[in-house]
């Protein structure tokens, strides 16, 4: 039956430190969140490139705000108690450099402990020590306590408690590593490791401080005081117990506190040169630790404890009978994310390791004393051998182990020597390479300097050439510019002259066209005026005739009405005489007369109706004719208006074109003038420079002349001196001859000098003359040019003024045309208004006449009817007596009736005549209108 697995998982605690000052300053994001209550740690990072969201669970989690005391009380204190119960316990601190391993294990200095309370940053070790002492003291136990403090650096074990004289400093190469040995019982021991027996906590704090100071530390990129070694601080406690049989037993417990080196990789830590090996060795221990953990987790047969000293030393703590706790430390910042994830993985895996903790067996005090005696004996022998120089006594089995280790060391040294030779060769090769590189670099720098000098020279020459080139280009450009300016001005002058000629011709033709059009317009206007005048006279005549006719008819009517009145008066007087007679007779005739009077009334009403209809027809006819005439007039007026508007628009257009043309002309002229001016200025400048050159030439000539004269004078003088000297030398003997000869020579020279002077003077004079001629010529040319320019300018001004005056005249003419056409329009409008007025007045007068006529007829008729009624009344009264005088009355009535008829009938006829006359007059007016229209049509088709 298989044994039940009594294994206990390795306890894994995670501690996350707060952001340090640098990280806060850089404002690095926090990617770790600790859930202490759930014992979970989450890693969250969401960027465009990476998305991480992982959660790890551990036995305990301490976040960035957790305190040292908190961690100790919750996680470490129970382990310390286990140690006091006789267990072996190990606490590892594992994590990236700078994440707080040393802070957690050791923390700050203990200093003075007041009322049993440590400063807040004191770590696990001092607190554990304090707890052990407190418990033991509290139990009043008989105990002994030993501490060891070793460092594992580059796979070498160093004793941090070794006496100071053997050390020259933390990085002293002379520091001797101490050997790790098999104890023959499957365990290991470190030979010569100092074990300090301690009685007080303070002593341990001091030992801890001293040992920590000796640790191998070196600057690295990640942590200025980065621990690059693993340290193991061990406390072994022996507590005396009494067995039931009174035998004294010793209870033993051991606490290993392991501060591992930084877990980060070599490259990232920035380790260089010599430290590469160091990192490799550190990693060797850590890698082996990882492999051991993996093997234990995966339960693989072979666990590679022997591959590193760290794992050999801590074999019991990993999968052995030790109680183990791993404190994984991490940083919260994004900067350490990768390493944090590695640490979390590592720690998470380590959680699966199972140990089988066992309480150490109690050892009898006598056995312990025996062992101690053996140890004392061994040590004494060692000291003795050392003194005698006869070697050291070693038991046989120990000797064999040591021999094997010695051989391994020799082998290792050989290998290292071989490595050293190889490295030396490599170094030599590298040195050579470095030397050649250096010479090459020196050569190259020399060449570079020379090339730079050459380059600078070339640059200077290039700059000079460039300067010269720029100057030459500038001169060429100036000359080219001058030539092109002259050519262009010549060309533009000729071109502008031809353009001007063409434009003038064009303007002249356009002006003649305009004038002819204006003449035609004038003619048309005159014809229109005559036509309108004719029409007016014709209309006036017709209207006169109409007025006369109406006036004649009115007088006729008046006469007829007067005669009618006379007749009525006559018949009335006659009737008054016969009324008395007739009154009686009329009564009898009443009934007969009633019917006849009624019929008379009917006839008169009919007459009235016919009158009314005839008059209304007449009025409507007249008004229709007049309105037709007015409409016709209005139409014509509108047409004429349109024509006039067209003319006005044409005239405006012409005016604008003319103004534009004049402006163009002016601009062209001014350009020409400017060009001519610039040309004349250039010419002036040219002549001025010519003049200055000429004067300087003259000065040079004068100077030359002076110098020549001076030289000739000097020559003559020299010659004279020479001659005098010769003369003196030849003495008086040849005085005469010499005098003659001298005189002759003198004369000759004088004449030659004179002729030379003369010729020079004449040539200079000629030159001066030439120069003055040239100057005169240039002056004359200049003055000619000036006058020419002035004439051009005056011509231009004259042409411009002529143009302006022509334009003004044309504008005036146009304005006159326009005002005349406006006058024509207003006259036409007046004519139309007068015709309309006339028509209104005619219609009104005709209407009033007809209405008067109608009224008088109605009055006559009413009078007649009233008379008839009175007569009827009288006849009614003279009913009986009227019968006799009926015949007379009938006769009288017949006569009156006849008279009335004789008045009414001619008046009707007159009225008819008046109507027909009116009709004829209107026909004539229509004819006149038609005639006007026809004539106008003819005119408009003509234009
Ligand atoms: N929990 C924490 N609270 C406050 N400060 C901390 C904490 N953890 C670490 N620190 C600080 O961080 C710095 C680095 O810590 P420490 O030296 O202990 O890191 P380390 O992991 O031991 O590094 P190395 O592996 O290089 O030795 C120290 O200044 C320390 O005071």
Q: Can you describe this structure?
A:
By secondary structure, the chain is an alpha+beta fold. The chain has 3 domains: 8-361, Kinesin (3-Layer(aba) Sandwich), CATH 3.40.850.10; 365-393; 432-698 and 822-942, no CATH class. It has 13 helices and 19 strands. It has helices spanning 21-25, 68-84, 101-105, 124-139, 201-214, 266-269, 274-298, 309-313, 337-350, 365-388, 396-729, 735-877, 882-942; strands spanning 8-9, 11-16, 32-35, 40-46, 51-57, 60-62, 88-95, 143-153, 156-159, 180-182, 188-190, 196-198, 217-218, 226-227, 230-242, 248-259, 323-330, 354-355, 363-364. The strands form 5 sheets. Strands 2, 6, 7, 8, 9, 12, 15, 16, 17 and 19 form a 10-stranded mixed sheet that branches. Strands 3-4-5 form a 3-stranded antiparallel sheet, covered by helices on one side. Helix 2 packs across helix 4 (124-139), helix 11 crosses helix 12 (735-877) and helix 11 (396-729) packs across helix 13 (882-942). The longest helix is centred in the middle third of the chain and has 334 residues, at 396-729. The structure holds adenosine-5'-triphosphate (ATP). Adenosine-5'-triphosphate binds next to helix 3 and strand 14. Its main location: cytoplasm. Belongs to the TRAFAC class myosin-kinesin ATPase superfamily. Kinesin family. KIN-5/BimC subfamily. Residues 362-389, 483-521 form a coiled coil.
Summarize this structure as a short list of keywords or feature phrases.
single chain; 943 residues; alpha+beta; Kinesin; 3 domains; 10-stranded mixed sheet; 3-stranded antiparallel sheet; flat; binds adenosine-5'-triphosphate
